[in-house]
What we know:
Number of helices: 10
Structural class: alpha/beta
Distance between the termini: 32 Å
Strand order of the largest sheet: 4-2-1-8-17
Oligomer: single chain
Number of strands: 20
Shape: globular
Amino acid sequence: MNTQLPTAIIGGGPVALAAAAQLVKRNMPFILFERGAYIASSILSWKHVRMFSPWEFNMDTAAKELLMETGWTAPAKDHMPTGVELVNEYLLPLSQLDQLQPFIQLQSSVKAIYRKGFDKMKTAGRDTASFIIEYEQHGKLLREEAASVIDATGTWLKPNPMSTSGHPAEGEIQNKNHIQYGIPDILGADKQRYAGKNIVVVGSGHSAIQSLTLLNELKLENPETTIHWVLRKKKVAEAFGGGENDGLPARGALGTRANQYVQQGNVQVHTPFLIDRIKKESETITLYGTKLDKAYSIDKIDEVIVATGARPDFSFLSELRYAADTSVESVPQLADLIDPNIHSCGTVRPHGEAELRQPEKDFYIVGSKSYGRAPTFLLATGYEQVRSVVAALAGDFKAAREVQLHLPETGVCSVSRSTEISDNSNSCCTTTPKKMSIRPIAVTSMSSGCCSSNNASTSCETDTGC
């Protein structure tokens, strides 16, 4: 590897910045490309959501060391940050350090990565050729040369569609004005969009339950709000997760909370409903599909929230020799550890550079993108990945091999549970707006103690968002 050239980091989220910090600690040059106007721009799309892992698991060691040198005070390790807190209190100060800020390219969308003078077919001399990063910035196509590449772009920007085929349902694209993907700011910026409306949430994971939590609170304030929950699972109890058995209590509480909403009748469940068509009917839409192999539909729907996961984008890697599992689309050696067809939660053993190694020398896919379509990624895993990868790039193979990772047990995430489980710590409060700011970004979050959007947790722990 040409040590005079920088390592190119693609992405500007927590794992990407951790990679930068690790490179700084080893006095290795880097250049980082963030497609958004601000660092960690994808996280700001779920700024209102509280993570279910505390600060202890959300900060990289090398990054903390660099910050501490400036007099920065670390947040309480047992506090669970919201997305805006993650940016405000950690990622933004990190990105503004003198060792990082000059080498961060914002509003830089990477279009292609390839070996200098090589297409995918050519082999002789390939491993010693530098990488070329083609990126668009302010309407111009630019190029940067790099010795190695760390792809930490995550999956947040490529949400899965609502259909079961993996392709958009018929009419899904045409009716996009009625659809939002991920976790909307239901109690904040998007409140008027959902208050008093007939709403469908599609999905069975943490993000779907998070949206149900926020909608349930909205319904307490606006009783005319109607909530439908569409799942592909045969029984709704399969989505309730491990509850008190989960090593992250806030994550376990999500399923308990969802069960409570169903038992109280605040959420109407449709399962297993397989959507294949959406049709506009006057000012509303109708969802068509099958339930237990029979035609089924839900009509007069105002809004749909699709929380069916996300997938990696490989389009800009077409001239590199990369490998991805054929089903999970993860780094191949991780597939059997995280495949949701095999594991309900995916507690993954510690792994590093050796498992992440690609056919293309000095190219690595890390962070949530390394997990492909699997939904169980935690930031602490990504931090250990990049520590090991950077050690290998530095030639410190001993450190790269010594992979150690402390994670909470994920608990039992797919079990048969009694439908009588409930959470007595239900609604208790009303929301009070609180103004928060990130230099130079102004945002508004909701804070209300035990039942605001700040109290509900999710699995938004990806490198560019969640």
